[in-house]
Amino acid sequence: MEGTTMVDQPRECKIYTETESVSMHNDNGSFQDEPRKILQMRALLEKHDPTSKEYDDLTIRRFLRARDLDIDKACAMFLKYLKWRKTFTPEGSICVSEVQNEIAQNKMFMQGSDKNGRPITVVFGGRHFCNKKGGLEEFKRFVVFGLDKLCSRIPQGQEKFVVIGDLQGWGYTCTDIRGYLAALSILQDYYPERLGKLFIVHVPYVFMTVWKMVYPFIDEKTKKKIVFVENKQLKSTLMKDIDENQIPEIYGGNLKLVPIQDS
């Protein structure tokens, strides 16, 4: 079944010049107009919300790219993000004490980087169950907790991360459509252009019923980053993007996984 089918914390504020902005991260010739649009977008943002000054040009550029360089749409997206961030993480981050029930499921790990330097996280979908104690709100906090941890490990010169979604042991008792859609919304709305690739491994046939329900909510940019991996080709597929010494031991590599809260 092989085939191709979250939110930035304020960083140290650095305003890149037009030359630096293009030379550092110009992935495509079609983005040559980005520096001018970044300046225009910044000016608009600061009129509506002065706190936008805390964010660097690279953050603004991610929102621009997420909206195909449409300044108005990107501004609306960024302002929504700023409002969400202030209300969802008023202290600036999510503490471990706020997601204890989710952490107890032992389902998210982080270790290693791919050949492009993008940090890797492994998420075990078969260990996720609806959190009856903390509910959907705690799960959303856990998603933000994990994504912020992941983004904090992205090295300078890189902007994305890689996810291995492992569905070993997944069954209908793990089904959580509300949780899946909430996580997807957080990733797409508040962490734009952060996902580099999502490998989905150990996929049981029954999962595809749920996948068909979630798929329509995935935007086109994200769909292009999703790869279903056959069990027999798991290690060889991962090695196209990840060196063996950076692949987790459970997939034939050399690294031990580190729980997200300990990373």
Rg (CA only): 19 Å
Percent strand: 5-15%
Query: Main beta sheet: strand number and arrangement?
Result: 6 strands, mixed
Distance between the termini: 32 Å
Quick description:
The chain is of the alpha/beta class.
Notes on the structure:
With 263 residues, the protein is an alpha/beta fold. Helix content is 40%, strand content 11%. It has ten helices and six strands, in the order E-H-H-H-H-H-E-E-H-E-H-E-H-H-E-H. It has a six-stranded mixed beta sheet, with helices on one face. Strand 4, helix 7 and strand 5 form a beta-alpha-beta unit.
What is the fold's blueprint, element by element?
Elements: E1 3-4, H1 18-25, H2 34-48, H3 57-66, H4 71-88, H5 100-103, E2 108-113, E3 119-124, H6 135-152, E4 161-166, H7 177-190, E5 195-201, H8 207-214, H9 220-223, E6 226-228, H10 234-238
Parallel strand pairs: 3-4, 4-5, 5-6
Antiparallel strand pairs: 1-6, 2-3
List keywords for this structure.
disordered N terminus; 40% helix; alpha/beta; 6-stranded mixed sheet; 263 residues; single chain
